[in-house]
Fold this sequence. Notes:
Blueprint: H1 6-26, H2 35-38, H3 42-56, H4 69-109, H5 112-123, H6 126-131, H7 138-154, H8 162-176, H9 183-204, H10 207-230, H11 238-256, H12 260-267, H13 272-281, H14 283-299, H15 314-347, H16 351-369, H17 386-416
Helix pairs in contact: 1-5, 3-4, 4-5, 4-7, 4-17, 5-17, 7-8, 7-17, 8-9, 8-10, 11-12, 11-14, 15-16, 15-17, 16-17
Amino acid sequence: MIKFTKPHFYLYILNGLAVAVYFVVFSNLNQNVSHEIVFSTPDALTYMDVANWIANGIDSESVSIRPILYPLILMITTNIGGAYGIWMMQVLFFILTINFTFLGIKKLTRSYVFSFLGAIIIMSNLSLIALTLHALTEVTTVFLLSTMLFFLSRKINNFREVSFFHSSLFFLVLLTILKPVFLIPLFGLLFIVFPLFYFEKYWKRPKSFFKLLLILLPLFIQYSIIKIKYDQTKISLISSLVFSNYFVAKGIQEIESIDYSKAKIKVKRFSSEDQTNYIVDHMPLYFSLFKKNIIDNITGKSRFLLYPKGYENNQLAVFMKTYNIKTLKVHYVFIVLVFLLLIILLIKKDYPTFIFLLFTYLLGAYLIISTGISFWQGDRLTLPAISIWAFIYPLVLFYYIKLLYQKLEIDGLSSKS
């Protein structure tokens, strides 16, 4: 006979709640699981183009802007179950994200209250639920980030070990061949963290270099594809395309008071050096544009609760708009709280928690800040960062309450003596 232990009991409650929330929202989305909905966006079609290139050799320019991981996932899931295969996979990723967030916070805090808080933040994001119906990378990104945080939370006391570095690197490699925006954090690990903190350990155990190469192999494959097809040493050409066609072009539109379409035509005549010089010459405007884009991306409307046309749910979209506006305010508060806690952790010499919090917070901040070069995507661009802030904000609150209790206990002992 199975014994329902306390941890299992809470997991049953968590998953029952997650499934109930998902299907209540799903039943009100005014959308169904179909090929027309799953591939209703131009971006989804580009991922499928790359899947067709991998499976059938059908050439496509989408290969230049879409790394191989998500197209591989699409290729497998569509062969198994078509549109339903993609949807079921992404629902599974959504449920697993909630579980990994819950279990990771529980591991570090031993508190069910804060664990449920993190999980509820994830499951109450209706934009994430809506995106499970679309062949886009956001749900998979959220899942991989939550998985990474879960595994790192279990290794937090071994942060000096090569295994901790390998785990971090492994997930960042997967994330990079999913979304190229993760390349900069990956390079940060490889070219800053690795030589400073881990190289000596590798030197003592040369076999670790072989493991490192195996972890980096998917990255080498992606680089090889772009090099062979486009003769460029890049992971993808998407970043330069977005930077030019969105950020630089938008600045040209405002500076020269011309149509956005004309600004995009003009920027195509600019070399990379010309674009840099143009931005430097108009730095105040571009800085203002960058900051505005970040705020708009955090507080933006839930595009996929209002898309495609004819399938809108305005009531749910209003809820998410409020959710996103409050999220911005929460971020402002936690900038201060996280900074102060990092100082406290250093003073207390709690290096494992300090490293974990610093790494995850910087990664989350980077994901949000990097969206400043793009716009008109609603809350989709900043959505993947929810895996990080839903995990570490409850963790930060827990540590402040823990510090408060410790102070009260000390004050109580002092008064008695």
